[in-house]
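REQUEST FORM: STRUCTURE PREDICTION
Request ID: SP-0412
Submitted by: Lab K.M.
Chain count: 1
Length (residues): 541
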Amino acid sequence: MDSPTESGVKSSDVAKGSVILLVCLFLSRVLGLVRDTVLAAQYGISDQNDAYRIAFAVPDLIFMLLAGGGLSSAFIPVFADYLHTDREEEAWQVFSDVILAVLVVVSLLVIVLEFLVPTILTGYTAGRPEIRADAILMSRILLPAQIAFMVGSVFFGALYAQKKFLIPAIVPNVYNVSIITGALIGPHVYGGGIKAAAIGALVGAVIGNIILPLLVFRKIGGRFRPSFTFKHPGVKRFFILLLPIILGFSLSAVLGLVSQYFATPYGEGANTSVSAASTIMQAPVGIFGQSLALAIFPVLAQFVAQKRMDLYRDQISKTLRTAMFIAIPSAIFMAAMAEFLAHALYGYGQASGEVEKLALIANLVRVYAVGVPFWIAQSILIRGFFSLHQTLKPVVMGTIATVVFIGLCLGVKFAPVGTTAERLLSLAWAANISVAVLTAALYLSLEKLVGKLDFKGIAITTGKSMIAAGVAGALIFGGTYLFNINSKTMVFTFVLLAVAIGGGIFAGICKSLKMPETEYLDRMFAKMDKMAARFKKKPTA
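STATUS: Completed
RESULT:
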């Protein structure tokens, strides 16, 4: 049985949360890749697919303006503070007032933006009149989904604060399944267009972010008692924490928005190619980065509430070491088999004959892979700031990194030379440079707030992981010459073998280097075995 620490946190809290999130986020990222595979197969790397990607620009604008990702981050420490200091009634009063305020504000913003969609998308469709009408229509379909996402963020914040990870973790799966369903039936309904996928996204957002949380709300002792006064001190603290996030611009929030804007002028398939490569890059970031960051967040918030900064520093350092241990092989393996990943995921149906576009996606994946360790690390570091009720500093740094990114993209746009492919690859490099700058700034600034972190340990883990992953990655890259990329059977066989054999070689080298992080894998697989065993023991109907 797990024993609690002095602070009351069980030693396995982060591990359990990480495993649950890891499994569900892994499924989510797999379904995300399947979603893009279906979209490419059904509609090609084409104008229609480009219109679908651009349609998300206006809904994403709400996410950016209201800091959708920051809602939970601002709410969790406030809610957890009341919850873990025996003020549960007040915790639920804050929850009620915050969720009502979010509902009203986002609904009004959606109504306004429904009218402004054509104006906002003017820049995104410049020089591409053939995609404008579809992009506008799908954007209007997608906008109401943001109401569900924002309200759901508050629901999930309450669940995370109580270390309830399962429901928030399965929501992206519901969303992706709904989009896939829409994409599959699209050719048979709604005029045979990709617009059915947008309708699927709206339905999935409502089911996952509103209906599912409501079903479990009472089971966790939730109470909804809106006062309509919003005068509770906790509500004021929430908005104080959220305000700097709203005034700032998160690099992760605007990356897709800005990339799509600058990719549009480069012709048919440019938006889809950038989005497809980014989706592949985001798979390990979402699976490992989000699972670690979300699992550590409520624990850090509790350490802060209990003034145990020694435990706080230790937890942050260990989590960063684990992050590098996972991120580096993910990035190197991804780069080594980029061409096979592009063909395995997008080389079907209408996209199967678009060889040059598939090659472009592969090259974009190789560039984006460089940024994987930085994306994972910054997601953990940002949670470190938010758990301290410090939102201004990371937002200022995120805004600066965003300005750097936009500046680099403008440099690419106005560069006197460069092919279309080179310019698109330069956009990916701009993202890498910006996130690297942001990660370094976050780390140094967090140390000033909480004291020295274990930089030596993190550096040792990073170095050893690079050695082990470099050897395994070189073998994977060499193996690409032994398989025929034009055969789907060969492509899938290679990807599966590369992950299995490369992962085994990496783990073996790491164990020989006596890396303590290998225990993370042992614990993870042990937990998964226990979960599988419990599932098998359940009696069938």
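NOTES: Residues 13-529 form one domain.
Reviewed by: T.R.
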